[in-house]
Write a structure and sequence with these properties.
This protein is α+β, with helices and mostly antiparallel strands and 173 residues long. The protein has 4 helices and 7 strands; from the N terminus they run αββαββαββαβ. The strands form 3 sheets. The chain has a 3-stranded antiparallel sheet. A two-stranded parallel ribbon has the order 1-7. The two termini are 46 Å apart.
Length: 173
Amino acid sequence: MSIITDVIESTKAIIQGMGVTLSYIPKRKWTVEYPDEPVTVQPRYRGQHLLHVDELGREKCVACYLCAAACPSECIYIVAADDPRPPEERTGVDERYAAVYNIDYGRCIFCGFCVEACPKDAITHGYNFELSVYSRADLLKTKDDLLITKQLQSNNYRVAQSHEDVDSEYKEV
């Protein structure tokens, strides 16, 4: 009797599972034809970091090391330098600036602690998500790679508007 009961229970489980699978067939698909269609990302999306400059083109980073101290994966490396020139000729907004600013994306977990820790709003997350490389050494991004004036942004994304909801995997269409 137990073999027959096991067969019946197994059959019911298979039919129930197939019912769930078949219920998704008539629904509209969520496939994005990337890279032909741009991917929609949320405004809070954390992509590749951006180092910002002020309206005069001077770097905002004052090499205070707060972002490196806040980073749990210790992927940020900074070397500070002093620039005693007059304020109009300086590299940064202050006498001190980051001569070297590296982020190792092989270690970065995109937590956003560096952005929160920065007192000058010098570093933020951008929307660039195309970070794939063939060599692990290419995951080390230097200041020239991160500066907003020099960084190449991908055209394969668009930022969602406030009324759009693209987060939910289980959204009814």
